[in-house]
Amino acid sequence: MKLDGFGLFVNDMPKMIRFYRDVLGFEIKEDEDADNVYLIKDGTLFLLYERSNFEKMTSRKYEYIKGFNGHFEIALYVDSFEEVDKKYREVLSKGAVSVLEPTTEPWGQRTCFISDPEGNLIEIGSFNKPFER
Fold this sequence. Notes:
Blueprint: E1 5-10, H1 13-23, E2 36-41, E3 44-50, H2 51-58, E4 69-77, H3 81-93, E5 97-104, E6 110-115, E7 120-126
Parallel strand pairs: 1-3, 4-7
Antiparallel strand pairs: 2-3, 5-6, 6-7
């Protein structure tokens, strides 16, 4: 099996679409009243599923964390330490919530954490060189 992508189960689809589109720059083409969002971001499938529709589809109820979600992170990479600081300030000015201000870690990465409107953690980081697979 190969990793195809990942999805978030969201409560407020319009708010989440606006955040990922307008704050983080994801190329979301669906309208804000969409039930599901499906897009490719940098070669990775990214999905937003409306929670109640997913529960109907699977005939199950699920538990959802309120506040910051410490179960996973979405990691975004930029090419330089300066870009980490710049993107951090930019996304905060557009409504992201700060979790950790930019800091240079002992392993050589400059990183910061923000959250989306539903508490999912997003890292913006760099090893001060272009991204390599």
